[in-house]
Amino acid sequence: MGADTKDQEGQTALKTLETILFPHLNQCHICKRGLPPLQGVILCDGCMEELRRCQRNGEMCLDFGHEPLDVAVSAYQYADITGRLVRRLKYHGDSSVAQLLSIGMCAAYAKGKERIGDAELIVPVPSHYTAIVRRGYNQAYYLAQVMTEHLGIPMEANALIKSRAVASLVGQTREARRKAVDKAFAVQRRGLIEGKRVLLIDDVLTSGATASSCGKALLLAGATHVSVLTACHA
Questions:
Q1: Which residue range(s) make up the domain with 191?
Q2: Is there a single domain that holds both residue 44 and residue 61?
Q3: Are residues 179 and 80 in the same domain?
Q4: Which of 6, 8, 123, 162 has its CA 20 to 30 A from that of 53?
Q5: Which of 189, 184, 198 is nearest to 70 (CA)?
Q6: Same domain as 209, residue 183
Q7: 124/229 same-domain check
Q8: What CATH number is given to the structural domain containing 105?
Q9: Is residue 18 pLDDT above 60, yes or no?
């Protein structure tokens, strides 16, 4: 028996043991149906098809015109399945969701590239340090990390910071959101941003207030263009 065959048998045995000890690892993240023991598979075929139906096909979400951002593009419409995935990423730190959502984000970037242009730097929308201490991660960083791997565009995770905490924006009006996040972001190291076309990455775009506030900070630091790409548009 060759070494390759032994390795394959060992991997199969390990996967079987994982299934017995950790059955939740082989369940669809949405409907909890059983899944084949394949690495990276987190949705069943039915839920995957529902996710595909939420794709926006590279439509521009908001035309900011004279606002700071050049363009905003989202991969998916925020719906039941996409909302549950985003919440799993945001509140449970499930990085496998970032891998899944990045497929649609890459497609959205490709379709919107004529207006986005050739981004030179990826920057995740930052969380305030208190949120990072509480959760242990920034969900936008997970998405940005995967996108930089897919697109080959360098990322600066610490170029932009959230300089003050902001109360939850859920349910607030567009104007209230804008006021809440005004001047809430700052660039730490201008040299990382100056002269660059920046692609902001975040999980959800709602009113565009957070992205616009980030865009203002980046442009003040010398970025030449700022666009935003998100997993979902609510």
A1: 56-233
A2: no
A3: yes
A4: 123
A5: 198
A6: yes
A7: yes
A8: 3.40.50.2020
A9: no
SS3 per-residue string spanning the chain:
CCHHHHHHHHHHHHHHHHHHHCHHHHECCCCCCECCCCCCCCCCHHHHHHHHHCECCCCEEECCCCCCCCCEEEEEECCHHHHHHHHHHHHHCCHHHHHHHHHHHHHHHHHHHHHHCCCCEEEECCCCHHHHHHHCCCHHHHHHHHHHHHHCCCECCCCEEECCCCCCCCCCCHHHHHHHHCCCEEECCHHHHCCCEEEEEEEEECCCHHHHHHHHHHHHCCCCEEEEEEEEEC
User: Average pLDDT in the 199-203 region?
Assistant: 97
Buried b / exposed e along 82-91 (16+ C-beta atoms within 10 A):
bbebbebbbe
Query: 197 versus 62: which is more confidently predicted?
Result: 197
Domain match, 20 and 100 both: no
Per the model's pLDDT, the better-predicted residue between 194 and 33 turns out to be 194
Predicted confidence at residue 60, as pLDDT, reads: 66
- Residues 150 and 190 reside in one and the same domain: yes
Question: Quick one: pLDDT band at residue 53, thresholds 50, 70, 90?
Answer: confident
For the chain, the domain total comes to 2
| Neighbour count for residue 207 (Cβ, 10 Å) | 18
Residue 7 has what pLDDT?
58
| One domain for residues 213 and 127 | yes
pLDDT for position 229: 95
Q: How buried is 106 (Cβ within 10 angstroms: 0-12 exposed, 13-18 middle, 19+ buried)?
A: middle
Q: Which of 36, 53, 70 delimits the end of a domain?
A: 53
CA torsion sign, 108 to 113 to 114 to 116? positive
